[in-house]
Amino acid sequence: MNRQSERVAYAEIWKRGLAFLIDLIVIFAIGAVVVYFTNILLGLPIEYVSIFQNKYPIKMNDFVKTHAVKLMVLYLFIKLTLIFFFFSWFESSAWQATPGKYTCGLVVVDLEGRRISFRRAAIRTVGKFLSSNLLLLGYALAFFNVEKRMLHDFLAKTLVIKKNGETITSVASSEERHRLV
Questions:
Q1: Residue 116 and residue 119: Cα distance in Å, rounded?
Q2: pTM value?
């Protein structure tokens, strides 16, 4: 199938990076609230201290010190679950973007220019975990293709494009998709 690519503006790498930083701030804020309420629900007496004092930033009692590894695993699970659902839900939502991408005027679409499913967004998110754990090499792929696709985009068969208020009518042909910069 031969499609026109004249109306597609692929997201610049710096704009995707800025969007990701905005998302990290949002995730950090949500995560802090979730961890705070988790501590209350579990009855954990953890007291947070200002980092500008000459003390450790967290005071812990003996229970917390004794169960530190279990608590770290719990918090890691909470963090990964939050990140997974944050990216998967937002990118498959009507916004087609996380808050960071939305702020930067970017949307995530499939190779036909359509909104992606939650399943495809979940594959993207797992791909982001892979990219992060492969010395960020999955992100570096964006420098070597016209569409600026990263590992998670290839795995989920998605594109990140500029929204610009125009109707997305098509995406690049498969020949353009495989051409290197």
A1: 8
A2: 0.78
Contact 135, 87 (CB under 8 A): no
Token pair listed for 46: 């953890």
Where do the structural domains in the chain lie, given as residue ranges? 13-178
Q: pLDDT tens across 10-68, in order? A: 999 999 999 999 999 999 999 988 988 888 888 776 666 555 666 555 666 677 778 77
In DSSP terms, 10 is beta-bridged to: 161
**Which amino acid, 141?**
L
Structure tokens belonging to residue 12 = 């610049």
The dihedral through the CA atoms of 105, 163, 130, 90 has a sign that is positive
The tally of CA atoms less than 13 A away on the side-chain side of residue 55 is 9
Sign of the C-alpha dihedral, residues 24, 29, 32, 35?
negative
